[in-house]
Amino acid sequence: MTVVLAVCTGYGQACTNLIVGKKASADGSVIVSYSADDFGSFGYLRHWAAGKHAKGATRPVYNWENNNYAGEIEEAPETYNVIGNMNEYQLTITETTFGGRAELVDSTGLLDYGSLIYITLQRAKTAKEAIGVMTNLIDKYGYNSEGESFTIADKNEAWVMDLIGKGTGRKGAVWVAVRVPDDCICAHANQSRIRRFPLRDKENCLYSKDVISFAREKGYFKGKKDSDFSFADAYAPADFSALRFCEARVWSFFNRYVDGMEKYLPYASGENPQAEPMPLFVKPNRLLSVQDVKDMMRDHYEGTPLTLDNDPGMGPFEAPYRPTPLTWEVDGKMYFNERPISTQQSAFVMVAQMRSQLPDYVGGVLWFGCDDANMMAFTPVYCCTDLVPECYSDKVADDLHFSFKSAFWVCNWVSSIVYPRYSQLFGELKTVRDRLETDYNTLQEKTEKEAMALAGTEGEGMSAARKYLTAYTNRTAAGMLYEWMELGKRLMVKYIDGTVRPERDGQYARTPGGLGVPVERPGYPERYRREIVKATGDRFEVK
């Protein structure tokens, strides 16, 4: 029996990527988002400095998920500056894990999907070059992860590549990469989305020479014509969880910006797996800004049939979050919770902005934040940055050690205050979040003009521009951390023990003697009071 890995239903990494072509964006940017949604994972910003290396030099490889040493590979003669998931040439690579057929995992391969991403970012300048680097590395050293969807984008174009190994004893992988049209948007969220693809269009589609023949050999594809081959159907056939927990997130993005997407809901919801699947990419009904993509990463299916604000799971304070795991059992029957884009287990979320109309050092911006996108503010990290902001570093904390110097821990601290009383407290968080992001967006043009004025031509001016943008990156991150610390303190004081401290003119109200006035005790919202009475009758009626 063939086993298909159901990534979305477990505790493994389950992520979301949104993609916007440069002619689908409001300012000509190529835009890519990435949420690293992994329970227990520590969110921080990685950095590799540019360098030149002697012939014959090697470099160690460490597994991205468990940090175990995997082995050595030959080092490239020159490597590029990498900050997070973007390098100094604005190349960005992200991923979501689709799992696929379990028998195709090759545990003997040296490279996992994470090390593959970050090694490639150090070696490639463009998306197309990166595809070649990634697949050549896999052919040479082997691949040990499950099936992956990669977003590979630069300042001019974006590609999606679905890739899966060949099983133990078969080094390499089968894969297909499709270019996203410039005027379209695309997404993937833990389910392979490349189905049929053009076999003779090298400008827009690349694939391994055995992607179809290997599927025939394994019995995954029995069609008469190669043109009927579907990568997703062969290597990652979708079950209910792959649709409802994964494809539904893609549908929500498309539904926000494309008319008529309701026809795909029966498929994306898992209600009818035989219904028409969504296309890989679609043309939006308006141009998207970087802020639109940030806000989409905060989506909870609002305004759709999958919304999280109309069932008892939201609790008394209408939280658009649900406890995990996604599936649960009652009286022998399995049930599930919705899995939206925005989710509490995000370690970090980023939105990459890549612009061909600007020099690389200023054109590439990684809008970055730790924790759930809905519960934090994105700060700008320029691709020339060579000093990680302290609060985004792994030097001040880790997954087992809390620190108020760590953005991951401070943001999670504030989120954990807000989640239990979401409808009461979230407005306060949103006010600070939106104010910060508005400030950063407003300052962006001025900051970049000042950096370019410093740069002049290559030489000392360029170095000054990079230092300026690195300092700005660090300053905004530190400023965000300060604001979040103050927010956490305010929430603790104002909403202590389920109460609310009254305010007057922006200050806590005090008695003539200088003490705080009595706190308000709002109790349950009206809606929830009625639910209790409906469920319990006169049990709690005061006699």
UniProtKB/TrEMBL annotation:
Give the InterPro entries listed for this entry: Peptidase_C69
Per the UniProt entry, what are the Gene Ontology biological process annotations, in alphabetical order? proteolysis
Q: What are the protein's UniProt keywords?
A: Dipeptidase, Hydrolase, Protease
Supply the Gene3D superfamilies for this chain.
Penicillin V Acylase, Chain A
Listed EC numbers: 3.4.-.-
One example of the protein's molecular function in GO is: cysteine-type exopeptidase activity
The protein's annotated catalytic reaction(s) are: an L-aminoacyl-L-amino acid + H2O = 2 an L-alpha-amino acid
The record's family statement is:
Belongs to the peptidase C69 family.
Name assigned to this protein: Dipeptidase
